[in-house]
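To illustrate the input format used throughout this study, we show a single complete record. The first block contains the structure-token representation of the backbone; no residue identities are included at this stage. The design step must infer an amino acid for every position from geometry alone.
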């Protein structure tokens, strides 16, 4: 066991990190500084400081990272159209590099010699945290209690917490492991470990169920400049306010629920449920605007790289040279994605109702089915013949065989 004098713990106030805080003090006989990133958890942060101090933290840092989170992490990710395995909008994945980056900053401020996190040895978060530590602070020792201690289950953690008079946030009514930020809420564990079991509607904290959503649709207009959303319904908004507004309208109309089984980086499959109302709206809106502003070959090339880009984020390689290089390409692709999209929201559904752009490549005079003077239909004959030539030659060869 390495000698540690002071460790900065990525602390949420949940079951795992509360137990870890006490365990670090008892096991390493060191000072523990609790660091909590405010990414938009809301009321969850109200009791964090007092709880950390009561559990034994020598100091508590709660850092407001909301604007940085949306502007410098979520928006770049959206410019890359990142969706992991076709469904997951990466709400947890994109938060971890920022948390770890800010945690390193607190460690420098506190002159700590170690950092610690509460990610389990089965999950993706341990990789995301530690790859960031390696990229930004390779000199700091890393403590991952789940890979060291013998508290190998949620029940053993609950018993430890009760023994040390630590409030337990997990109950029989809500036995889920949850992660919340401005972009999403995720749920894992409990009944969700059975992929055949339907998640109970009472589990969801953010969105209305589509069945309970209003019986009347609502239209929302989103304006983009250079690939970034800048206004909703004609009102220009800063990044956090914009996402919060879309979260509210999306949640009211049952937008953004996903139930999926994903492939974790460590090799196993895991079932999770997610609520990402604002993100779901932004993905759909940008897609609609890209359809009229992006060149065909640029769009197809970009889309071929999206799975790899999303994988980099999911695996935790945000601060890697390959992600940074690919980000420059993604950003260049969307420089003309400027304009407005109108969406209709109704009971969990998103329908594109209109799109317009001063940078549009859509030309009615070329695309019309009516008479035109700019397109010679006879030109298509030679185009088809040349593209068909290799197919004809192959067929002639096979006919002789």
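Output of the design step:
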């Amino acid at each position: 066991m390495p000698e540690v004098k002071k460790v900065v713990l990525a602390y949420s106030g949940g079951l795992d990190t509360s137990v870890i805080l006490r365990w670090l003090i008892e096991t390493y006989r060191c000072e523990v500084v609790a660091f909590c990133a405010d990414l938009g958890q809301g009321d969850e942060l109200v009791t964090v400081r007092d709880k950390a101090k009561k559990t034994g933290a020598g100091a508590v840092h709660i850092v407001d990272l909301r604007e940085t989170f949306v502007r410098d992490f979520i928006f770049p990710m959206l410019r890359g159209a990142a969706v992991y395995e076709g469904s997951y909008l990466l709400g947890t994945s994109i938060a971890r590099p920022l948390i770890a980056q800010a945690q390193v900053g607190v460690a420098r401020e506190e002159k700590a010699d170690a950092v610690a996190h509460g990610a389990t040895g089965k999950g993706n978060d341990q990789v995301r945290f530690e790859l960031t530590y390696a990229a930004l602070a390779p000199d700091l020792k890393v403590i991952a209690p789940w890979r060291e201690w013998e508290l190998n289950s949620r029940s053993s953690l609950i018993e430890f917490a009760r023994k040390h008079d630590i409030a337990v946030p997990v109950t029989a009514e809500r036995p889920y492991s949850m992660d919340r930020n401005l972009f999403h809420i995720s749920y894992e564990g409990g009944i969700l470990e059975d992929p055949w079991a339907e998640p109970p509607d009472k589990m969801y904290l953010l969105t209305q169920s589509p069945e309970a959503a209003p019986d009347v649709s609502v239209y929302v207009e989103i304006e983009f400049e250079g690939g970034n959303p800048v206004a909703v319904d004609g009102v220009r908004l800063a990044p956090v306010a914009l996402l919060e507004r879309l979260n509210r309208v999306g949640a009211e109309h049952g937008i953004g629920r996903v139930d999926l089984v994903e492939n974790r980086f460590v090799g196993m499959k895991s079932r999770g449920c997610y609520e990402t109302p604002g993100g779901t709206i932004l993905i759909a809106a940008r897609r609609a605007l890209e359809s009229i502003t992006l060149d065909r070959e640029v769009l197809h090339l970009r889309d071929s790289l999206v799975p790899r880009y999303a994988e980099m984020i999911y695996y935790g390689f945000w601060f890697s040279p390959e992600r940074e290089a690919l980000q420059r390409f993604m950003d260049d692709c969307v420089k003309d994605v400027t304009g407005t999209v109108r969406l209709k929201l109704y009971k969990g559904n998103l329908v594109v109702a209109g799109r317009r752009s001063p940078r549009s490549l859509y030309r009615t005079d070329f695309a019309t089915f009516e008479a035109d003077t700019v397109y010679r239909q006879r030109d298509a004959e030679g185009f088809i013949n040349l593209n068909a030539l290799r197919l004809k030659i192959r067929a002639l060869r096979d006919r002789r065989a």
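Structural context for interpreting the output: The radius of gyration is 25 Å. Residues 216 and 346 are 7 Å apart (CA to CA).
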